[in-house]
Design goal:
By secondary structure, this protein is an all-alpha fold. Helices cover 70% and strands 0% of the residues. The mean pLDDT is 83.
């Protein structure tokens, strides 16, 4: 556990003492970020759509009756 705090402290020091980074973000970077955000949004929407009955049953607490009953 002690090693974790040492690594965490060193990471904090590196973040605070960072020099200026002369980085270049090309126009493709913005579209890549937008694509990742939209992909995540549609993935979550699809997952909710697939498992909607299970999610609804979990939150309402109602048991789904089968056709035989």
């Amino acid at each position: 556990m002690n090693r974790f705090f040492v690594i965490l402290g060193m990471g904090g020091i590196f973040l605070v003492c960072a020099n200026t980074a002369f980085a270049y973000l090309d126009p493709g970077t913005g579209s890549m970020i937008l694509q990742a955000i939209l992909g995540t949004f549609f993935f979550v929407g699809t997952a909710i759509g697939i498992f909607w009955d299970k999610i609804k049953t979990f939150f309402t607490g109602a048991n789904k009756k089968s056709d035989n009953e």
